[in-house]
Write a structure and sequence with these properties.
It is a single chain. With 242 residues, the chain is an alpha/beta fold. The protein contains eight helices and twelve strands. The protein folds into two domains: 122 residues, Response regulator (Rossmann fold, 3-Layer(aba) Sandwich); 96 residues, Orthogonal Bundle (Arc Repressor Mutant, subunit A). Helix 6 packs across helix 8. The C terminus is likely disordered.
Length: 242
């Protein structure tokens, strides 16, 4: 399993649904997390930062609408609501509360997969800020569409935070990105003062990129301010072609 493959969290109290979606999602190359309760699901969103959440409305400990409302206070992760409730009012309420899509049970697996692909594609486009998703300077390749990073032809295994920091900096090539902006976009608004988290992740990222902070090739520190991604290609200009 590709460690950088998109991760989907399934929050549903029906064990059969969780198993079914787990098998279907893994067959499509996704990494999967599963939760049977609202509390367990919210904890996994906070600690594992999945790329997308499939959320059932009828959970045993809390109403799905309440879970969505709480989630939207601190996370912008795409949410696909799943429910036997098929009334227009339920769908409108979910979408107004911040759901990205709504699928009723019983459902076809291909429909769910198509909706997931669309939501993840929209998230990549929103995150990149550009219509293209590939950076290639002859040594470092960052393929956002595939969530793959390689250096000198060798695939790198980045953690979710390392990858998120790298891509966030890439969205602003050759420009300073403040520590607070990085913390807000990668960790959330409640972590804008946790600069030690950022220093640890950047340090590990530099090690994997074999990037010397004294003479940086890609990640330059702007003391007391933030970081800058030095975007260059063999020809001397950034390559963001799709």
């Amino acid at each position: 399993m590709n460690p950088n493959a998109p991760c989907v969290l399934v929050i549903d109290d029906e064990a059969q649904i969780r198993r079914f979606l787990d098998i279907a999602l893994r067959a499509e190359g996704y990494r999967v997390l599963r939760a049977a309760t609202a509390g367990e699901g919210l904890g996994l969103v906070a600690t594992q930062t999945p790329d997308l959440v499939i959320l059932d409305l009828g959970l045993p400990d809390r109403e799905g609408h309440e879970v969505l409302a709480e989630l939207r206070q601190w996370s912008a992760v795409p949410v696909l609501m799943l429910s036997v409730r098929d009334s227009e009012a339920e769908k409108v309420r979910a979408l107004d509360n911040g759901a990205n899509d709504y699928v009723t049970k019983p459902f076809g697996v291909q429909e769910v997969m198509a909706r997931l692909r669309a939501l993840l594609r929209d998230r990549v486009l929103a995150a990149s800020g550009e219509p293209s998703h590939r950076y290639d300077d002859g040594r470092l390749v960052i393929d956002q569409a595939r969530r793959e990073v390689s250096l000198d032809g060798e695939a790198l295994s980045l953690t979710r935070k390392e990858y998120a920091v790298l891509v966030t900096l890439l969205r602003h090539p050759d420009r300073v990105v403040s520590q607070q902006q990085l913390l807000r976009e990668v960790w959330g608004a409640s972590h804008v003062q946790d600069t030690h988290y950022l220093r640890i992740v950047v340090g590990r990222l530099r090690q994997k990129l074999r990037d010397d902070p004294a003479t940086p090739r890609w990640l330059k520190t702007e003391p007391g301010v933030g970081y800058r991604f030095l975007a260059k290609v063999a020809g001397g200009s950034p390559d963001q072609r799709g």
